[in-house]
Design goal:
This protein has about 350 residues and is an alpha+beta fold. The protein has helices at about 10-15, 65-75, 90-105, 105-110, 165-190, 195-200, 270-275, 330-340; strands spanning about 50-55, 80-85, 125, 140-150, 205-215, 225-230, 235-240, 245-250, 250-255, 265, 285, 295-300, 310, 330. About 25% of the residues lie in helices and about 20% in strands. Bound molecules: 2-oxoglutaric acid and fe (ii) ion. 2-oxoglutaric acid (AKG) binds near residues 209, 225, 230, 239 and 245.
Length: about 350
Amino acid sequence: MEAKTAPPQRVQSIAEAGLKQLPREYIQPPEARPAGRRMNESLPAPGEGVPVVDLFLFDPASFEDVRREIQRACGEWGAFQIVNHGIPRDLLERMIAAGRRFFDLPQDEKRAYSCDSRSPASEGYGSRMLSKDDSVLDWRDYFDHHTLPLSRRNPSRWPDLGDYREVVAEYSDAMRELAQKLLRMASESLSLAPSFIEEAIGEVYQNITVSFYPPCPQPELALGLQSHSDMGAITLLIQDDVGGLEVLKDGLWIPIVPLPGAVIVILADQTEIITNGEYRSSVHRAVVNPDRPRLSVAAFYDPSKSVEILPAAPLVAGGGGSPARYRGVVYGDYVSSWYRKGPDGKRNIDALLIDNQRS
Ligand SMILES: O=C(O)CCC(=O)C(=O)O
Ligand SMILES: [Fe+2]
């Protein structure tokens, strides 16, 4: 428990104090440590890593090729990078630069924007996604923005720092459009109506989280963000050139190597349910390094809390597909159970599996 008077500890302040040893709360259990990964034994050969999909090719003339690429990226990986996505490079760079400007502020100026650490997903500056007395802490600070629907968007709560507020608003709108485009492609590639997934998730809630991972004195013992899958429908992420995001594929942690100008797509749990497991939500984590701070910006695109999420009728038995693999769930209940249990390295979605047909 934090003492009432002491401000919550920020990872960046700990890092700046220049410790040689990682404080105990940040030491991961041996099985979760990045040093334990078997990654070096089998780094992906060129062309075998996380897919890169060129959306420029997504036109009717080459539709079949891209459709196959989308099917492979969503079905086998649940995470991929996209290029030629239509978002101006300049906007991506201004978003990263805005995030960096905030984290460069002196600690007491940042603290003026602190979120309410007792309430999950509260807006503002904070140090971890969930709090559970026995959990190991992430080597990460963040700033969470509530951006959509517009009724939740209140830029006066965001850093008053040059064009910061304009950039976040512009970025939010651009990422909403891109998420819609991708969900349409995902629907179409499963022969669903293009608007199927969008309609299934109802009014969209978007949060934008800037994550800051300070240099870590013992990165082999820590994680910037522990293994998890995202709860909502789809996450669009950009990162600077440092690298650290990894996705789990067939038991191996595969790095998503920074690709300038690319956007990383991470399918989240509700898309896996709606597609009846044809498309998978990606289990991912962030590792840290001793030398350079890393910054990423995630735009989470989530269903309304009141919507019931179910496997799509055309994809289950009766509609021509396989038996339903997941029980339906009201999204708000899914979120509450996630915050109660925490990710614990497991996929929350597995609790909804019928007969555990997929592991
Ligand atoms: O910073 C990253 O690369 C990952 C962030 C992430 O997975 C999340 O915020 O859910
Ligand atoms: Fe994530």
